[in-house]
């Protein structure tokens, strides 16, 4: 009698994570179009999350006080902000599949963070999974070093690679903290994520702009990006609400196996819409990374 009733209850959080993975997996496309209109991904991220944060505060004014009074939510603030700023920037300037695969070393970071924060045991099989993920990352990274152009090509991929790795670590921290703070009000967790996305991206963009970095200046005269940016803000607000809903209700292992569906969405969209070519070395590295993720979930079960 328990089985038929248990499945529908677990479908909601899984579907929510799939929605989040889809939005993130195809987000490179609107971000690149906004960049072509003159709006840098960091400024686009700032605008998206300012609008999202305002919507949450208007809906639940008490959420601002809850975030301010709970130091644990500040870590979600920083982790979510770093995740969004680095991912949105890297996927706009780098090879989409490569960036997403490096980002999805996230299960490796989740394993280590869960050991420190959630006090989960680190087993011998977990060490094997870490080795698999690292080997996969090495294969993915090697594609840039051996591509046409040699050292020049490797240098050109350095920034998106570093951003993707940093974003994956921050995303792992965000998911572990969402699990640990699942007892906090949902609107407070959501606001912490949205405020983080706005503040971290905004400060980074402002610093780069003041330093004279090309392409990061705010497009004062252009307005063509307003409507698509608003639409993207709605999509990201929905996806992040889905993330904090699903991650707070599923185990870290279950979250880790659903979220890499983003790799599939990113790969298909980059081939269909962006004319990308999937190199065998990248595919082999991605297979190792995703196999490590799947092994993690199977062991938990």
Q: Strand pairing plus helix content: what structural class?
A: mainly alpha
Q: Give the helix tally.
A: 15
Question: What's the shape?
Answer: globular
Q: Uncertain spans, ≥5 residues at pLDDT below 50?
A: 1-9, 145-153
Question: Which helices and strands appear, and what pairs or packs with what?
Answer:
Blueprint: H1 2-26, H2 28-36, H3 41-59, H4 62-69, H5 71-93, H6 96-103, H7 106-117, H8 124-146, H9 151-156, H10 158-180, H11 186-210, H12 226-249, H13 252-258, H14 261-272, H15 280-300
Can you offer a commentary on this structure?
By secondary structure, the protein is mainly alpha-helical. The chain is 81% helix and 0% strand.
List keywords for this structure.
single chain, 301 residues, mainly alpha, 0% strand, disordered N terminus
Brief description of this entry?
By secondary structure, the protein is mostly helical. The chain contains 15 helices and no strands. The longest helix has 25 residues, at 2-26.
